[in-house]
TrEMBL record, chain A:
GO terms for biological process: tRNA wobble position uridine thiolation. Gene3D superfamilies: DsrEFH-like (3.40.1260.10). One of its GO terms (cellular component) is sulfurtransferase complex. Transmembrane segments: none annotated. It comes from the Bacteria. NCBIfam families: sulf_tusB_dsrH (TIGR03011). It comes from Candidatus Lambdaproteobacteria bacterium RIFOXYD2_FULL_56_26. This is Multidrug MFS transporter.
From TrEMBL, chain B:
Signal peptide: none annotated. It comes from Candidatus Lambdaproteobacteria bacterium RIFOXYD2_FULL_56_26. GO terms for biological process: tRNA wobble position uridine thiolation. Gene3D superfamilies: DsrEFH-like. Belongs to the DsrE/TusD family. Its main location: cytoplasm. Keywords: Cytoplasm, Transferase. InterPro entries: DsrEFH-like, Sulphur_relay_DsrE/F-like, Sulphur_relay_TusD/DsrE. GO terms for molecular function: sulfur carrier activity; sulfurtransferase activity. It is found in: Cytoplasm. It comes from the Bacteria. This is Sulfurtransferase TusD.
TrEMBL record, chain C:
Pfam families: DsrE. Keywords: Transferase. This is Sulfurtransferase TusC. One of its GO terms (molecular function) is transferase activity. Belongs to the DsrF/TusC family.
Amino acid sequence: MLHCINLSPFCGESFTTCLRFAQDQDPILLIQDGVYAAQTGTKFASLVESALAKNPVFALESDLLARGITTTLEGVQVIDYDGFVGLAEKHQVNSWL
Amino acid sequence: MRFGILLKEGPYNHQAADTAYHFVQAALKRGHEVEAVFLYNDGVYNANKLMSPPQDDRHIGKRWSELGANGVEILACIAAAKRRGITEEVLIENATITGLGQLTDIAIRVDRLVTFGD
Amino acid sequence: MGEEIKKIMHVVRTAPHGTIYPYEGLEMVLIMAAYEQEISMTFIGDGVYCLKKDQDTSKLAIKGFMKTLGVLEDYDVEKLFVDRISLEERGLTEEDLYVAVEVLESPAIGKLMAQQDVIIPH
């Protein structure tokens, strides 16, 4: 299952809640304001790093660029919409709105 | 693969309509069939033809109309639409007002139903 | 089209009244319930507040949905799951809820989610 997070981690509990339900190796995709979780140096960095031990984490390139995020946490994979669709081909999608 | 999209937010106010649009484009480009974009909650405002954004901005209503002309069904939920004054008179081209039964049919038929919202 | 029954889970994570999401979500569930599919609802986070007893929306002049929630059973939506941690975090127990539900641990709900064909968030 592909878990999509669109909310900033500073704004709600989507990311932490999602982690409680995600199965091992389920991909997590950060989109829209969700990409703020992929930044380096925020208080959520360690949370994302611990998630990476269990789940691949992706961030949508266009949303990173739009928000001026030029460096992302090590291990977070940056993908474009083509990659987003590719993930959705392999997994059912669970949007944590 | 067959995709369906559920869009739960209105245009401009939230990024959901843009993300949904780019996702649909990418899916079509990868050779998938996108059966429908189903508009629910404030998402029904996407089907309002009276929207008139500044010239240098994207026209979200027209985007959906164009997709509608290219075989992607653009469907607005009748219950959600009535509540918000979205009627046949203000409906964008190539869109249809329909019931939640049709969303159920889509959910049953497609391989992936992807939701965008807030 | 296959005759296979689809598993569709509605995940409610929003509180009632503050937004229309759970209310319109319930409207969707009631329509889908008329189809011969395997429909379930899962309440997580603030979504559990939708199930709280003693909601009185009369002074808000909005319909509320406690009555509708009660008829879910008649519509064959018998699978109502609630995340135990979400209840506990809010100081609620099963006794505070208006309808009969199955309280599950998050990993158990996660496993159910993994089995779904469709997940619809509200």
